[in-house]
Write a structure and sequence with these properties.
The chain contains 15 helices and 20 strands. It is an alpha+beta fold. It has 3 domains: 205 residues, FAD/NAD(P)-binding domain (3-Layer(bba) Sandwich), CATH 3.50.50.60; 127 residues, 2-Layer Sandwich (D-Amino Acid Oxidase, Chain A, domain 2); 52 residues, no CATH class. Strands 1, 2, 7, 8, 9, 10, 18 and 19 form an 8-stranded mixed beta sheet that branches. The chain has a 7-stranded mixed beta sheet with strand order 5-4-13-14-15-12-16. Strand 1, helix 1 and strand 2 form a beta-alpha-beta unit. Helix 1 packs parallel to helix 10. The protein is globular. Keywords: Oxidoreductase. This is FAD-dependent oxidoreductase LodB. GO terms for molecular function: FAD binding; oxidoreductase activity.
Amino acid sequence: MNDQYDVVVVGAGPGGGSAAAIVAEAGYKTLLIEREAVPRYHIGESLMPEVYWPLQRLGMLDRMREAGYVVKSSVQFVSANGKESDPFFFREHDDRECSATWQVERSKFDEMLFQRAAELGADCVDRTRLLEVHFDGDRATGVRVRDAEGKDHDITAKVVIDATGQQSFIANKLKLKQVNPELKKIAIWRYYENARRDPGENEGATIILQTTHKNSWFWFIPLSNGVTSIGCVGDRDFMLSGRGTPAEVYDEELAQCPGLLARLEDATRVGDVRATKEFSYWTTRHAGDGWVLVGDAFGFIDPVYSSGVYFALEMGVRAGDAVVAGLASGDTSAAQLGSWTEEFKAGTQWLRKLVNVFYTKEFSVGRFLRDYPEHRGNLTDLLIGRIFYDGAGNLFDDLDPALQQAVAKAKM
């Protein structure tokens, strides 16, 4: 590491890796640091098809095709009584190559981004911990970090890109983080070998399965080498209300998920149970003079629609472009570095609304689509991640009243 850079990016997940690659490719002196040793484990393995475009921008599509990841061509939903929906095949809505995506091992995927940033000219250093972001008044001016040997370094920078994930370093420092009180979730997951997958094109599908009581749901994400990621998400108070260890809670909820039990009849557990909080939160400001937030440091919605990696990549590219333009013009103000954020939030609001629909127990999306089949394409767009266009939220013109009616009817 040197002691002076144009840009320091903190955190080498999808947001930080993509931002560092964009800035370094433009010729600016860039440092990307990661607290853990790369490669490192991370959850968040299912990608939305719209990752195609930021990955294309980063020059990584051929590497993705050659990496051996499971191809994801669809998503499917299973009701509380085990009834399976028809798969949402993305190609039926759009037959271009961009309508297929991947299920990834994040250690490998994030390492690919780390290496790509290095290829494009960034100094990429792992096992390096952020200790402090330096400010001169309201302007970020650099960072203090501790390297793998325990030595501290003060590094000046014209821009700091915070990609510290749920640690949200700058947002916590400046008290910018707002938790959604209705989406305080906990995720508990483990891995299985030989879980039953569907034949044919639906083999790589992400499957979302409800439990009988609808207080939790499971994800089913097929990975390479016959391994499947299977996780349970529920309200924090429900999942942690004195019910025992995370493994015991997981097993209790699994027993209440008939749609999943059949898929695990011949499966073998691999490794230990893991758990993490999956709180939905947003930040009240996303950029300031000399700093900008990307990825989970910016905000996190919910794991149900697998939007996290796509959003992080998209934010990384957009923030990287804003930083490059700002450095070129000598303007690293909050307005310039955050110039992309309002458009980004306008698109992502539709996924936030769809998450709220999913957690409304009284409402059935399947029934809604039977009543309004004309919205199936719009819904598929949202599941693909295609949200940045006029009309992306048109289905809510009919969905919002139907949702209100279903909730009111349930209270009668």
